[in-house]
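Exercise 7. Given the encoded structure of a 102-residue chain, write a plausible sequence.
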């Protein structure tokens, strides 16, 4: 039987994100022109655990960075990490049930 710690390590071993960034000095501040994809407002999520957020995908130095952005404050609250292509980032968004804003 796995310990709780072993279970967590296995569950998140493929997760390359950084986690919560709100309130840190490392908070990314992407420019609107660099945002290539934005989702509809997403409500409470087991991963992000924050109401009224949107997933944004930002082109950043040849990679695609994925962030949860507060719809109310406009600040980045969570960093999901980077993907090498826009298609990979969109696939990540669909797995997490984020829907594109049209």
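Solution.
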């Amino acid at each position: 039987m796995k310990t709780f710690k072993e279970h967590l390590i296995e569950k998140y071993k493929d997760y390359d994100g950084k986690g919560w960034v709100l309130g840190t000095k490392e908070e990314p501040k992407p420019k609107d022109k660099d945002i290539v994809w934005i989702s509809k407002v997403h409500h409470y999520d087991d991963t992000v655990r924050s109401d009224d957020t949107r997933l944004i995908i930002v082109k950043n130095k040849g990679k695609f960075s994925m962030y949860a952005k507060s719809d109310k404050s406009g600040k980045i609250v969570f960093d999901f990490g980077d993907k090498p292509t826009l298609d990979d980032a969109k696939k990540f968004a669909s797995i997490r049930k984020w829907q594109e804003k049209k």
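Remark. The chain has one domain: 16-95. Students should compare their own answers with the one above.
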